[in-house]
Specification:
CATH topology: Amino acid/polyamine transporter I
Keywords: Membrane, Transmembrane, Transmembrane helix
CATH superfamily: Amino acid/polyamine transporter I
Distance between the termini: 23 Å
Membrane topology: Multi-pass membrane protein
Structural class: mainly alpha
Number of domains: 1
Organism: Weissella hellenica
Largest sheet: none
GO molecular function, one term: L-amino acid transmembrane transporter activity
Strand content: under 5%
Low-confidence stretches: 1-5
Number of strands: 0
CATH architecture: Up-down Bundle
Helix content: over 70%
Number of helices: 17
Subcellular location: Membrane
Order of helices and strands: HHHHHHHHHHHHHHHHH
Radius of gyration: 21 Å
């Protein structure tokens, strides 16, 4: 198709947007991170507060990005925001980082985790997990190659299903749990250390990551200036309630030291305790659905940024091809192939940690963009219309978002200096690519 005919379909409403936010954030973290966060925090009260504060920092980021997205309602997400705010070079590095590092690494890690749980549930040898992960990516990519309303409906369905095990854990813990949810301390300290509240918040922030992927769909959301902020804010509020609720329910159901000792087995133990062996299996199915929904949400959103960059002429032209269903088919399958390569060749845990660190660099810069946009409004005497979303309690909310970003970056720098250096190398590889396309497009 000709470039002028490339046009994505605006068919996603606010409920699909909310489902994308919930679906891309709630994956395995809330189920598997309970022991780590609790042990790091040192007690149940501090652990619960860590999940709450991590959620509030994430919400501040969501409110801040919502204002930027309301002003720049285009496909491409923070790639477009960074370009509009800081120029083409910064925009390209943002997009390059997502295309080359963040998107394929996150998709690969989610598919790898899914394949491990899938193999364990069905008794399949673990040597088959790379193949299961690849097949999963292929199937989800094929689904997203159809009309985006199909992938959107699948997102709504999986999001609804994934809330069932969350509700079960919350209800059982609150009404039938016999432990004290608050006031317990962790008696045994392992190598992760105990009583470090800051690192506990950091762990929850990684579990909350993924909400900004909705911004990549700005060109396909109906009335994006109004619906994009609604979807991000309400989606994050639901996620925060789910995370804090599950945490409280688990703390009420099991003693603190047992939660730490069980690690990733916590949800199965609570479910089995509540509903017997069947309950454990249902929780496993719920987590599998949760992870497949997360994978679908990321595959729905990430390729749109690849498409936007190809449209701008800073990535190969073939990546802006769309199919008869008006889907960015080349960007979809290129992202999928990169993810499948990483499933075979790379360590998913390490790559996902690096990807999350790198993306927070650009989150921080995007958060600062609110101050730039408002300063331009004052200078030019512009009054925003009623449909433009404004971050509440300005400048407090954007400052909290920026503070949260700096917190993530500094703590990661201290904890994993070598990983940070390697991540900067990957970002820097985009510099010659940028100048190549600058020269080519002259």
């Amino acid at each position: 198709m000709e470039a002028g005919k490339n046009e994505l379909r605006r068919s996603m409403g606010v409920w699909t947007g909310i489902s994308v936010v919930i679906g891309t954030v709630i994956g395995s973290g809330i189920f598997f991170k309970q022991g780590q966060v609790l042990e790091t925090a040192g007690g149940t009260t501090a652990g619960l507060m860590a999940w709450l504060i991590g959620g509030l920092i994430t919400l501040a980021g969501g409110l801040t990005v919502s204002e930027v997205g309301s002003r720049i309602p285009e496909t491409g997400g923070i790639y477009i925001y960074m370009k509009k705010l800081y120029g083409g070079f910064a925009g390209f590095l943002t997009g390059w980082t997502q295309v080359a590092i963040y998107a394929p690494a996150i998709i690969a890690s989610v598919a790898a985790y899914f394949s491990q749980l899938f193999a364990n549930f069905f008794g399949i040898p673990m040597t088959w997990t790379p193949l299961i992960g690849i097949i999963t990516v292929v199937l989800i990519t094929a689904l997203n190659s159809l009309d985006n309303r199909i992938a959107g409906a699948f997102q709504v369905a999986t999001t609804s299903i994934k809330l069932i095990p969350i509700a079960a854990l919350v209800i059982f813990g609150i009404f039938f749990g016999k432990a004290d949810a608050l006031g317990q301390t962790v008696a045994h300290v392992t190598s992760t250390g105990s009583g470090n509240f800051g690192l506990a918040i950091l762990a929850t922030l990684f579990a909350y990551d993924g909400w900004a992927t909705l911004a990549n769909l700005g060109g396909e959301i109906k009335n994006p200036s109004k619906n994009l902020p609604k979807a991000i804010v309400f989606g994050l509020l639901i996620v925060i309630l789910a995370y804090v609720g599950v945490t409280y329910g688990i703390y009420q159901a099991l003693p603190a030291n047992k939660i730490v000792a069980l690690g990733s087995e916590v949800p199965y133990t609570v479910a089995t305790q509540a509903f017997g062996q069947l309950g454990g299996k249902l929780i496993a199915i719920g987590i599998l659905v949760s992870m497949i929904g997360t994978l679908n949400g990321k595959m729905l959103a990430f390729p749109r940024m690849v498409y936007a960059m190809a449209e701008e002429g800073v990535l190969p032209r073939y990546l802006k091809r769309i199919n008869q269903a008006k889907e960015p088919i080349a960007a979809l399958w290129t992202t999928a192939v990169l993810a499948m390569i990483l499933i075979v060749l790379s360590g998913a845990d390490w790559l996902s940690d690096m990807a999350v660190f790198v993306i927070w660099l650009f989150y921080a810069a995007t958060f600062c963009g609110v101050f730039i946009l408002r300063a331009k409004d004052r200078k030019q005497g512009i009054t925003l219309d009623a449909n433009t979303f404004k971050a509440p309690l300005y400048p407090l909310v954007p400052l909290v978002a920026i503070g949260g970003a700096l917190f993530v970056l500094i703590n990661t720098l201290i904890a994993s200096f070598s990983m940070v250096l390697i991540s900067f190398v990957f970002v820097a590889l985009g510099i010659p690519v940028y100048y190549y396309y600058q020269f080519k497009n002259k």
